C-alpha cells in the first residue's frame, strides 16, 4: 500500500517536534563569553573543606580559593606563599613563620597569626575529620606577634614544609565558620585568600569561581572560572572538541595521539608523582624469595607496555619512587630479560607451570585492566601460569589491606601518589610498621635496615643527608624488589590552543590559575 | 468512604509495605557487599585511627538490626541520615538532584510519547507500506541501541560536528535535548510499536467500519475512535516506561554528566555511601510505585468500562 499525501501528515508531527527542539536548542547553544575559563573534570568534589580532601583533583579546585603557607613550583621545589619566610630550630621541632602582610580573606577579615593558629588547631583536632592528619605531627601552634607564628612538632619532621604545601593545610577564614551552611567541623562555603572566590556550587554539575579583585598576588586574566563535572572521559573530550570547554584532564588515553595531532589543541603529558606497580606479597611461599621477585621484574617489558598500552603516557620506573619527589635518586632498571628471569626462577626452584594470582582493579588507574593482561602475558612467557582477577575498588582495598595472617593475595596491581612531594610519603610503602593493619604497605615487605634508613631520614634535618639516606634505602628496596616496578604515570591535560600559560604541577594538578587567551 | 477512596487507601497502604520491603532489601544489599566503607571514604592514605573514628561516626560498628532500627526511626521522621562522603543531610543531597532527574524523565517521556504515539498511529494507518517498514526498522534500532553508544553518536553529530547543542552538563536549556533523546529512544520505539499494534487491532473492529461508512474523516476515525479505544495498553506502556526512565537515567546521566540522582547513585555506590544509596533507591521505588498507581487511576478516566471496587 502506497503512502498517500494525507497519510504523510501523521509523521510530520514528530519530525516537526524534533526539528523545533534542535533548532530551538541550537539558538541557545554555543560557547560562553571569553571572560570565563571553562574546565571539565571527572570528579564531583566530595568536600571543599581543605582538611577533609583526599583527592588531588578536588584539591586542585580548592586551591583556586584557599592558599597555604608554602607552595611548589612546576619542578616540585618548595616556595613561600602565605608565609614570606621561615626559620627552623636546631632540634627540628620548631618552625617559625613570618606571614605575608596586608593579606585579607575574601570576607574582609585579616590573614594573621591568629588565623593560622586557628587553622592548625583545627587540623589536629580529633573532632574534625582529617584523613591525612598523620602528615601533620603538630603539638601546638603559638602566636608570637600578629605576623609571626611558631609551630612546635611532636618530633623532628623534615618533610613538614612539604606537608604545608598540600591543600589539606589550606588556610580558611576563621570568621567564616559562622557563615550559613558552615560549621567548625565541616566547611561547605570556603573562604580563603586565593585569586578566586567560590561563588556558586551546583552539586554534580558545576562550580563557579569569580575573580577576587583585591587579591594580594599576581592578577589573573579570566573574570571567572567555571568547572564542569563530567564523569565520562569521552564526553569531556567531546566538550573540548566542540569548543564548549577550554581545558580537560584525563581524556581517553587511546585518543591522546589523535589529540596531539589536532592543531586546535595542546596536550600536556605532565610528569606526576604516581607510581604504578605490582605489589608482591613477600610473606607468601616462594614470593618471599628475592630471586623470584627479581625474576618477575626482569620478565615484564615495561617499556613495551608504556608504548603500546599507555600510549606513551608514562615513564618506566628507575627507582622505587617518582623523580619528582625530594629524596629520589636513580637506582637502576630491571631491563626486559626473560632469559635471566627464567634462570632466577630455576635457581629458586620454581618449576614451569607454577600458578600465580594477579589481582587488579578495573578503571581505577589508567588502562589498569589492559596493563594487567599484558603483565600476565609476559609472566606466562617465563613459564608462570597467571590467573587474573578483578573486583570493585572498595572490595579491592579490603582484600589487599587484610592483615598478613589472613591475606590471600599473591600479586596485586596498585598505584601510589604521595600527598606531597617528599620521599617520606613514598617510603611508607617500604616501612614494615606501615603494613596492614597499621597502614597500606600491602607487600608486607620488612627489612630492618630499610626501616632504620627511612626513620633516620624522617628526622634528619640536613637536606643532603636526608637525600642520601633515602637514596641508600631506595637502592636496598630496588634490590629486594617487593614490587614489580612498573612506571610513573604521566597526567594528561588537554587544552584549547586559544589559551596559553597553562602548566602542570608534578602532583597531578593543572596549573591554570594564570591562564590567558592566546594572542 | 467512596469506592475510589477505599481503593486509593488500599493501594497507598500497599505502597508503604512495598517500600518497607525495599528498605530491608537495600539495607541488607549494600551491607553484604565486601569492602570497608570507612576505609573507602577516608581514602587509602588515612590512618587506622581516622578510619576507626569514621566507622564509629557512621555507626558501622553497631549490630545490623540496631543500624536498621535507627534508620527506620529516622526515616519515620523524614530524616534519611547524613551522607558519609559529604557530611551533608541525605535529604538535602537528594532534593538537590531529584528535580534534574524528574525533569529529564518528564521531557524524555513527553518526547517519547508524542513521537511514539504519532508514529505508531501513522504506521497503523498505512500498514505494510514503505513508511511502516521504515518505522519498524527505526523502532527495532531504538530498542536495540545501547544508551551509551547512542549518546556518544548524538554528541559527535550534534555537539562536535554541527555544534548545535551542548555536549554535556545542564547549564543551558538546550542541554536537556541530547540526554532526553538518548533516554527516550527506547521508550519511543516501544510506545510506537505498542501503538501500531493496538491501533491496528482496533481499526479492524466493526464500529470503525461503521464510522468510515457514515463518512467520518479519516483523521477523526484514527484519532478519536481508533486511538481512543486503543489507549489502555498504550497508557500502560507509557506509565511503565516513565518508571523505567527514572531508573534508566543512571547511564544517560553518566554519559552526559547530567547532575541527577543517577549520577549521584553511581558515585555513592562506588564510595560505599550507604545512607545516600538507600535514600536514592527508596526514592526511585516510591516514584515507581506512585507512577503505577497513577496509571491504574488513569485507566478509569480513559475507559469508562473500568471501575474500581
Describe the 3D structure:
- The complex is a heterodimer of chains A (519) and B (309).
- Chain A has helices at residues 5-28, 56-62, 113-123, 160-163, 233-241, 256-261, 290-299, 302-308, 338-347, 368-381, 393-400, 423-427, 448-459, 463-480; strands at residues 36-41, 70-72, 78-80, 83-88, 94-99, 138-145, 148-153, 196-202, 206-211, 224-229, 247-249, 265-280, 314-316, 355-361, 385-391, 411-416, 483-496, 499-500, 503-505, 509-511, 516-517.
- In chain A, strands 1, 8, 9, 10, 11, 12, 13, 14, 15, 16 and 17 form an 11-stranded mixed sheet that branches. A 4-stranded antiparallel sheet of chain A has the order 4-5-7-6, covered by helices on one side.
- Chain A has 14 helices and 21 strands.
- With 519 residues, chain A is of the alpha+beta class.
- In chain A, 50% of the residues are buried.
- In chain A, helix 10 (368-381) links the parallel strand 14 (355-361) and strand 15 (385-391).
- Chain B has 309 residues and is mainly α.
- Chain B folds into 2 domains: 2-76, no CATH class; 97-302, MetI-like (MetI-like fold), CATH 1.10.3720.10.
- In chain B, helix 1 (3-32) packs antiparallel against helix 12.
- In chain B, 44% of the residues are buried.
- The model of chain B has no long low-confidence stretch (mean pLDDT 84).
- Chains A and B meet through helix 1, helix 5 and helix 11 of A and helix 2, helix 3, helix 5, helix 6 and helix 7 of B.
**What share of the residues of chain B does DSSP label as strand, in percent?**
under 5%
Number of strands of chain B: 0
Rounded to the nearest angstrom, the distance between the terminal CA atoms of chain B is: 11 Å
The total strand number of chain A stands at 21
> Count of DSSP helices of chain A?
14
Largest interface: A-B, 73 and 76 residues
User: How large is the radius of gyration of chain A?
Assistant: 26 Å
Amino acid at each position: 500500500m502506497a503512502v498517500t499525501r494525507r497519510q504523510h501528515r501523521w509523521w510530520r508531527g514528530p519530525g516537526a517536534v524534533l526539528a523545533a527542539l534542535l533548532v530551538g536548542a541550537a539558538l541557545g547553544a554555543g560557547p560562553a563569553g571569553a571572560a570565563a575559563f571553562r574546565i571539565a573534570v571527572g570528579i564531583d568534589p566530595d568536600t571543599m573543606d581543605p582538611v577533609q580532601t583526599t583527592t588531588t583533583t578536588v584539591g586542585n579546585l580548592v586551591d583556586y580559593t584557599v592558599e597555604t603557607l608554602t607552595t611548589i613550583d612546576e619542578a616540585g621545589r618548595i616556595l613561600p606563599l602565605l608565609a614570606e619566610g621561615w626559620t627552623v630550630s636546631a632540634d627540628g621541632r620548631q618552625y617559625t613563620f613570618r606571614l605575608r602582610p596586608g593579606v585579607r580573606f575574601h570576607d574582609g577579615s585579616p590573614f594573621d597569626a591568629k588565623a593560622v593558629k586557628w587553622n592548625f588547631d583545627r587540623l589536629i583536632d580529633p573532632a574534625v575529620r582529617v584523613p591525612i592528619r598523620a602528615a601533620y605531627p603538630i603539638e601546638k601552634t603559638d602566636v608570637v606577634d600578629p605576623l609571626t607564628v611558631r609551630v612546635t612538632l611532636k618530633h623532628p619532621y623534615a618533610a613538614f614544609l612539604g606537608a604545608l604545601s598540600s591543600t589539606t593545610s589550606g588556610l580558611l577564614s576563621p570568621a567564616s565558620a559562622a557563615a550559613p551552611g558552615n560549621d567548625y567541623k565541616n566547611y561547605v562555603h570556603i573562604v580563603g585568600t586565593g585569586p578566586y572566590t567560590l561563588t556558586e556550587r551546583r552539586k554534580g554539575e558545576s562550580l563557579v569561581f569569580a575573580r577576587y579583585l583585591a587579591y594580594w598576588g599576581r592578577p589573573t586574566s579570566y573574570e571567572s572560572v567555571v568547572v564542569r563535572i563530567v564523569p565520562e572521559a569521552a564526553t569531556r573530550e567531546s566538550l573540548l572538541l566542540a569548543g564548549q570547554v577550554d581545558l580537560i584532564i584525563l581524556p581517553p588515553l587511546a585518543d591522546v595521539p589523535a589529540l596531539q595531532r589536532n592543531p586546535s589543541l595542546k596536550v600536556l603529558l605532565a610528569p606526576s608523582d604516581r607510581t604504578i606497580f605490582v605489589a608482591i606479597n613477600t610473606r607468601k611461599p616462594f614470593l618471599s624469595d628475592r630471586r623470584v621477585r627479581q625474576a618477575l621484574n626482569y620478565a615484564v617489558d615495561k617499556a613495551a607496555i608504556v608504548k603500546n598500552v599507555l600510549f606513551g603516557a608514562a615513564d618506566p620506573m628507575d627507582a622505587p619512587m617518582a623523580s619528582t619527589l625530594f629524596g629520589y635518586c636513580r637506582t637502576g632498571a630491571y631491563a626486559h630479560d626473560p632469559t635471566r628471569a627464567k634462570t632466577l626462577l630455576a635457581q629458586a626452584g620454581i618449576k614451569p607451570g607454577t600458578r600465580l594470582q594477579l589481582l587488579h582493579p578495573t578503571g581505577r588507574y589508567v588502562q589498569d585492566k589492559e596493563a594487567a593482561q599484558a603483565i600476565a602475558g609476559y609472566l606466562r612467557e617465563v613459564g608462570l601460569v597467571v590467573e587474573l582477577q578483578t573486583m570493585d575498588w572498595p572490595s579491592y582495598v579490603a582484600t589487599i589491606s587484610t592483615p598478613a595472617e589472613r591475606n590471600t593475595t599473591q600479586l596485586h596491581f596498585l598505584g601510589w601518589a604521595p600527598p606531597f612531594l617528599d620521599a617520606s610519603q613514598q617510603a611508607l610503602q617500604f616501612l614494615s610498621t606501615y603494613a596492614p593493619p597499621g597502614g597500606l604497605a600491602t607487600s608486607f615487605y620488612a627489612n630492618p635496615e630499610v626501616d632504620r634508613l627511612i626513620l633516620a631520614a624522617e628526622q634528619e634535618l640536613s637536606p643532603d643527608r636526608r637525600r642520601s639516606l633515602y637514596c641508600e634505602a631506595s637502592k636496598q628496596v630496588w634490590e629486594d624488589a617487593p614490587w614489580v616496578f612498573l612506571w610513573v604515570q604521566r597526567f594528561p591535560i588537554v587544552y584549547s590552543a586559544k589559551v596559553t600559560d597553562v602548566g602542570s604541577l608534578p602532583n597531578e594538578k593543572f596549573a591554570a590559575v594564570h591562564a590567558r587567551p592566546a594572542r | 468512604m467512596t469506592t475510589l477512596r477505599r481503593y486509593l487507601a488500599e493501594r497507598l497502604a500497599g505502597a508503604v509495605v512495598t517500600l518497607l520491603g525495599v528498605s530491608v532489601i537495600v539495607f541488607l544489599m549494600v551491607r553484604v557487599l565486601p569492602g570497608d566503607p570507612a576505609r573507602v571514604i577516608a581514602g587509602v592514605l588515612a590512618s587506622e585511627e581516622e578510619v576507626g573514628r569514621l566507622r564509629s561516626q557512621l555507626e558501622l560498628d553497631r549490630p545490623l538490626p540496631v543500624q536498621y532500627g535507627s534508620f527506620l526511626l529516622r526515616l519515620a521522621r523524614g530524616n534519611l541520615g547524613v551522607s558519609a562522603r559529604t557530611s551533608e543531610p541525605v535529604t538535602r543531597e537528594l532534593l538537590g538532584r531529584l528535580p534534574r532527574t524528574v525533569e529529564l524523565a518528564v521531557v524524555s517521556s513527553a518526547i517519547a510519547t508524542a513521537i511514539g504515539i504519532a508514529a505508531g498511529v501513522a504506521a497503523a494507518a498505512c500498514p505494510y507500506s514503505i513508511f511502516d517498514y521504515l518505522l519498524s526498522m527505526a523502532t527495532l534500532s531504538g530498542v536495540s541501541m545501547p544508551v551509551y553508544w547512542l549518546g556518544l553518536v548524538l554528541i559527535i553529530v550534534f555537539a562536535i560536528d554541527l555544534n548545535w547543542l551542548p555536549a554535556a552538563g545542564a547549564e543551558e536549556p538546550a542541554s536537556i535535548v541530547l540526554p532526553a533523546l538518548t533516554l527516550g529512544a527506547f521508550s519511543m520505539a516501544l510506545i510506537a510499536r505498542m501503538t501500531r499494534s493496538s491501533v491496528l487491532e482496533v481499526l479492524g473492529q466493526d464500529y470503525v467500519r461503521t464510522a468510515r461508512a457514515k463518512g467520518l474523516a479519516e483523521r477523526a476515525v484514527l484519532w478519536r475512535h481508533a486511538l481512543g479505544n486503543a489507549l489502555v495498553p498504550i497508557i500502560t506502556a507509557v506509565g511503565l516506561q516513565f518508571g523505567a526512565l527514572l531508573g534508566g537515567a543512571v547511564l544517560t546521566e553518566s554519559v552526559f554528566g547530567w547532575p541527577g540522582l543517577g549520577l549521584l547513585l553511581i558515585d555513592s555506590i562506588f564510595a560505599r555511601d550507604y545512607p545516600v544509596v538507600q535514600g536514592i533507591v527508596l526514592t526511585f521505588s516510591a516514584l515507581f510505585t506512585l507512577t503505577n498507581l497513577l496509571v491504574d487511576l488513569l485507566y478509569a478516566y480513559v475507559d469508562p468500562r473500568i471501575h474500581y471496587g
